[in-house]
Automatic annotation (TrEMBL):
<feature type="binding site">
    <location>
        <position position="414"/>
    </location>
    <ligand>
        <name>Fe cation</name>
    </ligand>
</feature>
<dbReference type="GO" id="GO:0045549">
    <property type="term" value="F:9-cis-epoxycarotenoid dioxygenase activity"/>
</dbReference>
<keyword id="KW-0560">Oxidoreductase</keyword>
<feature type="compositionally biased region" description="Polar residues">
    <location>
        <begin position="1"/>
        <end position="13"/>
    </location>
</feature>
<keyword id="KW-0934">Plastid</keyword>
<keyword id="KW-0937">Abscisic acid biosynthesis</keyword>
<keyword id="KW-0408">Iron</keyword>
<protein>
    <recommendedName>
        <fullName>9-cis-epoxycarotenoid dioxygenase</fullName>
        <ecNumber>1.13.11.51</ecNumber>
    </recommendedName>
</protein>
<keyword id="KW-0150">Chloroplast</keyword>
<feature type="binding site">
    <location>
        <position position="349"/>
    </location>
    <ligand>
        <name>Fe cation</name>
    </ligand>
</feature>
<feature type="region of interest" description="Disordered">
    <location>
        <begin position="1"/>
        <end position="31"/>
    </location>
</feature>
<dbReference type="InterPro" id="IPR004294">
    <property type="entry name" value="Carotenoid_Oase"/>
</dbReference>
<keyword id="KW-0223">Dioxygenase</keyword>
<dbReference type="GO" id="GO:0016121">
    <property type="term" value="P:carotene catabolic process"/>
</dbReference>
<feature type="region of interest" description="Disordered">
    <location>
        <begin position="48"/>
        <end position="81"/>
    </location>
</feature>
<comment type="similarity">
    <text>Belongs to the carotenoid oxygenase family.</text>
</comment>
<dbReference type="Pfam" id="PF03055">
    <property type="entry name" value="RPE65"/>
</dbReference>
Length: 601
């Protein structure tokens, strides 16, 4: 990942207790820290590292707020979102904690002798507006410049990585704790709030006052990564931490399904988050679909706009089956798992659906845990592997009829849409093909390039073709975005995608005609950057591009954030709302209309 310059005013971070549920939150200092436990770096950022962890009281009682798990089909709406769990350490556990803390301190000293790659250096990964913010309670009646368009009535939500505690070792931006930002529109009035998703991982680390769970991307490299895994397992065996209820961060995706807002990352099952009537957010539980979901679920499940079913994948990096497909009907009833045979565990961040099929990418970024023994990263770009796409019936009961079609040198981190063209015996896939394929995870000299592509899979011949939708002379990196959600899985003309330049920042978004390759850009302005553009269709219109783009924009000079509403037809700004809190650059979002919120579980 390329380096970028942090604002000199962005000095990170002190951890204090918040009034909300006695939680720890991150406070941003604008003054340079005078702590002796700091290091300076070329990014003009100072990181005050936390003091060595010690039990917070002499009786070693830790009170942790743990999200409850829904296990009954019809949980009453007044179910308490959290319950208290007390952990009391006996003398042996206290001794084990002290010994393991000493081991970790020694490990950190050893790691500090070796420079971190930019892809796991927190001074790079969470510098500038990638740095975390504290929770912000609801602020009502925000000032509005312009006019909120008719029909925007509901809540815009966006997920992102926001580490509660300062990293003590390697940290990748994807490792941060999940935080959801909510902008609620009610009869022309606007409110804002942001809250952590209270995962089991967050609750335990909050109570302990430090990070203790291994970070999958930032820390698990080479021999020190193995040592950190052993340290975690030792703490687990001693009862100092509990990973049996998942270790996910729920920081990537958001989907509203079966009257529930779900926050997701592919390392766990989803978390159910509720939007309160006044626009605040509260975590209800780690949601297993009433005891139906027994494995992780990727962060990009798909809701079909016609049958209203939710389609999803689950991948495992340790044991077979490495990949499973399943679906939930509109009432939340899960299908049996379909095990998809793979030779090795493969990264499956996204997939696509059509009217009748699911389209599964099996690409060149794979997991090889043995590489850690040899001192490397377990996330590997396998140059010898041939990328391919699997096409399977949505209603398949097993993978025997899956049609695999090779698509050489194709790595799409995200797929924007797919549809069927029966007259050609083809499935058309729209995605951004990224090179180098592992550049997000592993440091490399080659600059990242993301090419918006049309990939055609011929079900009759078993062959594929790929073309760049935009002319090479007009190339731009397009990542993060969407098509009209009411057209998902059907032929679409337009896609709305983040203009990821200069990488990894987003300087604007592009409206791309997928048929002609015509591009219309909306640029945020000098020193202003944003993230994923959310397309909100006009439900009363038949025109595919009739709607609005909602996006957070941050001014790096003024150090202020706002939400912008842009007309998707002519790309004219309709309204902007300054926000009471800085909004870090983040991941994916959704919009829930007010009528849907009324039915929220």
């Amino acid at each position: 990942m390329a380096t970028f310059t942090a604002s000199p005013s962005n000095t990170w971070i002190n951890t204090k207790s918040s009034s909300r549920t006695n939680s720890s939150s991150i406070l941003l200092n604008k003054k340079r820290s005078t702590s002796k436990n700091t290091i300076s770096c070329s990014l003009q950022t100072t990181l005050p590292f936390p003091k060595k962890y010690q039990p917070q009281s002499t009786n070693t009682t830790t009170t942790t707020l743990i999200p409850t798990r829904e296990t009954k089909p019809n949980l009453p709406s007044n179910t308490k979102p959290l319950h208290k769990q007390e952990q009391k350490w006996n003398l042996l556990q206290q001794a084990a904690a002290t010994a393991l803390d000493f081991v970790e301190t020694t490990l950190i000293k050893q790691e500090s002798k070796h420079p971190l790659p930019k892809t796991s250096d927190p001074r790079v990964q969470i510098a500038g507006n990638f740095a975390p913010v504290p929770e912000h309670p609801v602020t009502q009646n925000l000032p509005i410049t312009g006019k909120i368009p008719k029909g925007i009535d509901g809540v815009y939500l966006r997920n992102g990585a926001n580490p509660l505690h300062e990293p003590v070792a390697g940290h990748h931006f994807f490792d941060g704790d999940g935080m959801v930002h909510a902008v609620k529109f009610t009869n022309g009035s606007v409110s804002y709030s942001c809250r952590f998703t209270e995962t089991h991982r967050l609750a335990q680390e909050k109570a302990l006052g430090r990070p203790v769970f291994p970070k999958a991307i930032g820390e698990l490299h080479g021999h020190s990564g193995i040592a950190r895994l052993m340290l975690y397992y030792a703490r687990s065996l001693c009862g100092l931490v509990d990973g049996t209820h998942g270790m996910g961060v729920a920081n990537a995706g958001l989907v509203y399904f079966n009257n529930r807002l779900l926050a997701m990352s592919e390392d766990d099952i989803p978390y159910h988050v509720r939007v309160t009537p006044n626009g605040d957010l509260t975590t209800v539980c780690r949601y297993d679909f009433n005891d139906q979901l027994k494995s992780t679920m990727i962060a990009h499940p798909k809701v079909d706009p016609v049958d209203k079913n939710l389609y999803a994948l689950s991948y495992d990096v340790v044991q077979k089956p490495y990949l499973k497909y399943f679906r939930f009907d509109s009432n939340g009833v899960k299908s049996p798992d379909v095990e998809i045979p793979l030779a090795e565990p493969t990264m499956m961040h996204d997939f696509a659906i059509t009217e009748n099929f699911v389209v599964v990418p099996d690409q060149q970024v794979v997991f090889k845990l043995g590489e850690m023994i040899r001192g490397g990263s377990p996330v590997v770009y396998d140059k010898e592997k041939v990328s391919r796409f699997g096409v399977l019936s949505k209603n398949a009961e097993n993978a025997s009829e899956m049609k695999w079609i090779d698509a050489p040198e194709c790595f799409c981190f995200h797929l924007w849409n797919a549809w069927e063209e029966p007259e050609n015996d083809e499935v058309v896939v729209i995605g951004s093909c990224m090179t180098p394929a592992d550049s997000i995870f592993n440091e490399c000299d080659e600059s990242l390039k993301s090419v918006l592509s049309e990939i055609r899979l011929n079900l009759k011949t078993g062959k594929s073709t790929r073309r760049a939708i935009i002319e090479e002379s007009e190339h731009m990196n397009l990542e993060a975005g969407m098509v009209n959600k009411n057209k998902l899985g059907r032929k679409t003309q337009f896609a709305y995608l983040a203009l990821a330049e200069p990488w990894p920042k987003v300087s604007g978004f592009a409206k791309v005609d997928l048929f002609s390759g015509e591009v219309k850009k909306y640029i945020y302005g000098e020193n202003r950057f944003g993230g994923e553009p959310l397309f909100l269709p006009n439900e009363d219109s038949e025109n595919e591009d009739d709607g609005y783009i909602l996006t957070f924009v941050h001014d790096e000079k003024e150090w202020k954030s706002e939400i912008q509403i842009v007309n998707a037809v002519n790309l004219k700004l309709e309204a902007s709302i300054p926000l009471p809190s800085r909004v870090p650059y983040g991941f994916h979002g959704t919009f829930i209309h007010s009528k849907e919120l009324e039915k929220q579980e």
